[in-house]
Each structure stands twice: as C-alpha cells, then as structure tokens.
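Student:
Attend to each token:
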Amino acid sequence: MPFNIPILLTWLRVALIPLVVGVFYVPELGLSVMEQSIASTVIFIVAAATDWFDGFLARRWNQTSAFGAFLDPVADKLMVTGALLVLVHLGRVHPIIAFIIIGREIAISALREWMAQIGASKSVAVSSLGKIKTTAQMIAIPMLLYYGDFLHVIDTIFWGKLLLWVAAVLTVWSMFYYLRKAWPLIKKVQENKTGY
C-alpha cells in the first residue's frame, strides 16, 4: 500500500467520518444541540476540504496510485452516507431523499466495478452532471448539519433542503445518464452470453 500526503489526507477524511456522527451520540461530550450542529458542520467541511486537496496534491506531485483511486471515492461515499443517516435520524432529511442518494451511489459503484472488469471503465467516467450533483450535495449537507440561521443571514434549513432536493433530482438524472452510456456494452455482453 503506497503512503504519501494525498493518501494520508484521504485516510484523515475516513477518520473524521465517525466524528461527524459521534458528536450527536456521545453524551459524555456534554454538547448542546447547537454545539453538536456547529461541531459536525465544521468537521464535515474539513473532511470535504481534504477531498479537494488530496486530488489536487496527487495530480500536482504526480502521486496518483491505484490504491488512492480506490480509497478516495470510498471515503467520499462513507462521508456522505454517514452524514445523511445522521440527518435522517435527526429528522432533517426525508428518508426517501437519503435512500435515492445512497442507493444511486451503490448502483453506480457496482456499475463502474463491472465496467472495469470488462475493460470499459471510461464509459462511466464522471460527468459534469455528476460533478454538479456532488457540489449541490456537499453544500447542502453541512447546511443541514448546522440547521439554523447562519450569522442571521443565511437560512441553512431552507437552502440546505432545496439543494439536497436538487442533488436528489440530479442523482436520478445522472444515474440514467450513466446507465444509458453503459447500456450498449451491457447489451453486447448479454448477447455474447446468450449467443444471439
């Protein structure tokens, strides 16, 4: 397993995930609801920042690796899933929205793995639509973790819920986009198996 700064940042992101969840469920911390919300928001933002930095540094220092390429999306999905589950439990996110986002991540991850096995991973490379979805999602989640008027200026409840709905719609749209791109290969493999 290679070890460098980008991979260290990715591992840091993995380590921060239990903290995002834990601040709400460890009574020994003695935090108020507002303190829990602020702490989880800050931790999530730091974790999200490591996502940008690890990719930037890996490319800048030419330290990309197969292990890093595997670990990075796993860390992202764990971070988003953990935060969404907490938000559902707190009643800040509807379970259906969380299910759509998490379900799509599982489905597309499985599709990418299968496409890689048949040597066609470029067919399901990340699209601009997926990047917009991720951006909306990564802004919405810390807003909903904070869940209040930020500096009495930004209503994070309203904007967080709106952006998460946008992310959910784009999640479904991008999933169909990836499936449509992969469908000719899926059909071809199926035809080869059946002999038609």
In short: The radius of gyration is 19 Å.
